Amino acid sequence: MADLSGKIAVITGAASGIGRASAQLFAERGAQVLAVDRPESAIMEAHAGARNIAPLAQSVADDDAPEKIVAAALEKYGAIDILFNNAGVSGRALAHETTDADWDRIFAVNVRAPFRISRAAIPHLIKRAEEKGRARIINTASVMAFDTDIGLASYTSSKHAVAGLTKTLALELGKYKITANYILPGAIQTGMTQASFSDPFIRGVWEKKAALRRLGQPIDMARAALLLASDDADFITGHGLVADGGLTLRT
Q1: Which of 93, 102, 173, 222 could form a disulfide with 21 if both were Cys (CB 3.0 to 4.6 A apart)?
Q2: 179-188 pLDDT, tens per residue?
């Protein structure tokens, strides 16, 4: 059983879905968690009563977000062991119908924010790794980091970029005993996908595609992130962990 006792984690997109489940699971396993999400989200209510979770209402896309997030973690807990860049947005439009604004919105949240928050956190992760022997960066990508679908030009491109960013961070930061990995969720039932999966036909199609014959749940992704955050993952870096219930096994 992975033990995160004594570790401090920053998790973005933590008001719902994968981020919320991860914040709760990490806290249950002993971590102190800074749970970050947009001011208009339910971040201030999502973890009410949780002793080891401190909420921060902050959009990751804001220009001053990295400094505010890192400063909040340091002020509350004094260090950062684990940075989990999980916040993300999606969109669907044919390439020739995708506007610059839509493209920029997806890249601002899915790629630019993880890069900028990681950049701000790296000096503190290096310091923590010197003290404790390890530190972690985990990013949420998607199986669309190696596949694609019609209407996903911007989303798929952003998730390919997350994979490339993470691999490069792994290469650059390994000498400091910092690992960088990314999870690749498949069809997961979250707030972002609820509109589609509430349709029984669409839900049934995606359930049948998966080898496990079900949709993924946020806790499934939280467990994948927990593995990469744990001490057991000391020799895993630059890796994309597919957690899709066998969705992408078929050609």
Answers
A1: 222
A2: 999 999 999 9
Q: Give me the CATH number covering residue 148.
A: 3.40.50.720
Q: Fill in the amino acid letter for 141.
A: A
Structure tokens at 230: 């744990």
Domains: count for the chain: 1
15-68: pLDDT as tens digits: 999 999 999 999 999 999 999 999 999 999 999 999 999 999 999 999 999 999
User: Among 77, 155, 176, 182, which one carries the catalytic annotation?
Assistant: 155
pTM, to two decimals: 0.96
Q: Is 155 a catalytic residue?
A: yes
**Within a domain: 207:** yes
Residue in the structure block whose two tokens are 């790629």: 111
CA–CA dist 18, 226 (Å, integer): 12
Checking 203-208 for CB contacts under 8 A at 24+ apart, the result is 206/247
Question: Residue 12 pairs with which residues in a beta bridge?
Answer: 36
